[in-house]
Design goal:
Layout lengths: L4 E6 L6 H7 L16 H10 L2 E8 L6 E7 L2
Antiparallel strand pairs: 1-3, 2-3
């Protein structure tokens, strides 16, 4: 609904991404859990395409995790 809010998180990079992919398995018949990273820009574009306008963003001190707030405009 217009005026509603969306909180979304991102993980643009992780120092142990390769280790995680090789150590964990996915729900797909035990295959490696390979995650595709999305840049913050890509995440913001997806949110905008869904009818939201980004208001603010916070990033942890290592730049690994992000939390963003957007508001519905359409």
């Amino acid at each position: 609904e217009p005026g509603g809010y969306l909180v979304y998180t991102g993980q643009p990079w992780h120092p142990q991404l390769e280790l995680i992919a090789r150590a964990l398995t996915s729900h797909r018949e035990g295959q490696a859990w390979v995650m595709r990273r999305r840049s913050q820009s890509e995440m913001d574009q997806l949110v905008e395409a869904a009818g939201f306008r980004k208001i603010t963003q916070r990033v942890d001190e290592w730049g690994i995790f992000t939390v963003s707030l957007a508001q519905r405009i359409q």
